[in-house]
Write a structure and sequence with these properties.
Belongs to the tumor necrosis factor family. This protein is of the alpha+beta class. It has two helices and ten strands; from the N terminus they run ααββββββββββ.
């Protein structure tokens, strides 16, 4: 018997399905080496020129910084600042310890000239500082009190007169402090009256520090000072 269900023919191919997407590859042309070489050379040239201009500009500003751009020359600016400070008109006074044999009626602090420092400012009768050049000065004082007095306030005042022959004095600055608590009881501590202000002075003007009672002042080193410098 012949088997009619077997055949040697291959099965027909499966038809393609149209519902699937197929990627289409589009060939991309490679860049031409002949065109890329000039472009790279141009970019390298531009970068080199930019670097050259930056270096040249830095060198120019560095050598001309003292006049046009002083902030680019820190050593020169530092030396100029040091020169200005060392040549500034100033006085820095240290109080002289009051002796019991000295006249107690004077209420002006006296200054220890050996431990004080003066530059282009005069010194008169151990008390007054004499201005030799007109201008604006920053004047300061620090007076420390070690004792209190219930009858008078603890005050320090900077007095000024026009010159050494002028008898009229005026108070240009004043400061106060207290050694008592709210109950009025004396407490064992110090208090300091500090003041500082810009004052316009003329050549010949004199300044000094006045207190109500010299015996109340603390004369320890650094506790009571007086000074000024020209702005």
């Amino acid at each position: 018997m012949i088997n009619t269900y077997q055949t040697s023919l291959a099965p027909p191919p499966v038809p393609p399905r149209h519902n699937r997407s197929h990627s289409v590859l589009i060939p991309v042309p490679h860049p031409s080496q002949g065109r890329s070489k000039p472009l790279v050379s141009l970019l390298v040239t531009l970068v080199f020129l930019q670097l050259l201009l930056s270096v040249g500009g830095f060198v120019y500003l560095y050598h001309n910084g003292n006049t046009a751009y002083p902030f680019l020359s820190p050593p020169a600016a530092h030396l100029s600042m040091e020169k200005e400070i060392t040549s500034r008109i100033l006085a820095r006074m240290i109080v002289k310890k009051k002796l019991h044999t000295e006249n107690p009626t004077s209420n002006y602090l006296q200054w220890d000239i050996q431990h004080s420092f003066l530059r282009d400012i005069g010194y008169y009768h151990n008390v007054w500082l004499t201005v030799q050049q007109s201008g604006d000065y920053y004047v300061y004082s620090r007076v420390t009190f070690s004792k209190g007095d219930p009858r008078v306030p603890l005050a320090s005042m900077i007095k000024m007169r026009k010159n050494e022959t002028d008898k009229e004095e005026k108070t240009v600055m004043q400061a106060y402090c207290s050694l008592t608590d709210q109950s009025g009881t004396q407490i064992p501590q110090l208090c300091t009256a500090t003041q500082g202000e810009v004052v316009t002075l003329e050549s010949g003007n004199q300044l000094s520090v006045w207190v109500q009672d010299l015996s109340l002042v603390d004369y320890e080193e650094g506790a009571t000072t007086f000074g000024m410098y020209k702005l």
